[in-house]
Amino acid sequence: MHVIYGGTFDPVHHGHLRLAVELKERLGVSGIAMVPCHIPPHREAPGTSSAQRLRLLELAVSGEPGLHVDDREVVRGGASFTADTLRQLRATLGEREPLAMVVGTDAFAGFDRWRDWQAIPDLAHIIVIDRPGPGLPPDSAPARLLAERRVASVAELHRRPSGGCLWLDLPLLDISATGIRERIRTGRSPRYLLPDVVWEAIRRDGLYGAGQPLRR
Ligand SMILES: Nc1ncnc2c1ncn2[C@@H]1O[C@H](COP(=O)(O)OP(=O)(O)OP(=O)(O)O)[C@@H](O)[C@H]1O
Ligand SMILES: O=C(O)c1ccc[n+]([C@@H]2O[C@H](COP(=O)([O-])O)[C@@H](O)[C@H]2O)c1
């Protein structure tokens, strides 16, 4: 099964990386493809370029054989619609290989506003990671999709190419990229929230206001 985990990763942090490792083990796959978006479709444009976010992600996963970076959205350019990414992948994987996308409940709550969202279940399985927060509004389109397509086990995802929705409860770290950017901007340390190699690169390149004198 080919598994993609997409995000803005602005910057990547240990919450993302731990989730990816937990997923790899829970799904019994050889690797997870992390897919940084070029232009995120439904949020403000990041202050960093996709090339910078991609570079930080590559540094973060280097030396970890179970995680790799798929740069197709950065290479494709434009708004990073997941349906386009899944269609590209389906074209190379063929019709029979199971393909799955991973998404947190926060992102999945707005799934019915994604471009061409109704086509996505026919392209891939959807793995929803239960994150703390408001959760899914009970009568929303994403909640109905989950109820209709829900599978009870990982084994069911391996048995068919697409179409299942798996709700997974995994141990998560309470870390957000917003919190990290805010720490850096205000001159506080984000250390231990993200890999040292990523923090070193952020400082070296002066990203997120690192190294700038504080304006009070
Ligand atoms: N700490 C975390 N643990 C597990 N999953 C996470 C964590 N943070 C984000 N995710 C999930 O990773 C994906 C990409 O998230 P994203 O790049 O937006 O990170 P973020 O930390 O939520 O960023 P921001 O604070 O800028 O919104 C989303 O599906 C999101 O639900
Ligand atoms: O395809 C869409 O319309 C779409 C809309 C919103 C989000 N996504 C994808 O969802 C993933 C998580 O997004 P984010 O904003 O939480 O980083 C990321 O891979 C985005 O490209 C995709």
UniProtKB/TrEMBL annotation:
Its EC number is 2.7.7.18. The keyword Nucleotidyltransferase applies. It is an enzyme of class 2 (transferase). GO terms for molecular function: ATP binding; nicotinate-nucleotide adenylyltransferase activity. SUPFAM superfamilies: Nucleotidylyl transferase. The keyword ATP-binding applies. One of its GO terms (biological process) is NAD+ biosynthetic process. It comes from the Bacteria. Residues 4-183 form the Cytidyltransferase-like domain. Keywords: ATP-binding, NAD, Nucleotide-binding, Nucleotidyltransferase, Pyridine nucleotide biosynthesis, Transferase. InterPro entries: Cyt_trans-like, NadD/NMNAT, Rossmann-like_a/b/a_fold. Pathway: Cofactor biosynthesis; NAD(+) biosynthesis; deamido-NAD(+) from nicotinate D-ribonucleotide: step 1/1. Pfam families: CTP_transf_like. Signal peptide: none annotated. It catalyses: nicotinate beta-D-ribonucleotide + ATP + H(+) = deamido-NAD(+) + diphosphate. Catalyzes the reversible adenylation of nicotinate mononucleotide (NaMN) to nicotinic acid adenine dinucleotide (NaAD). Belongs to the NadD family. This is Probable nicotinate-nucleotide adenylyltransferase.
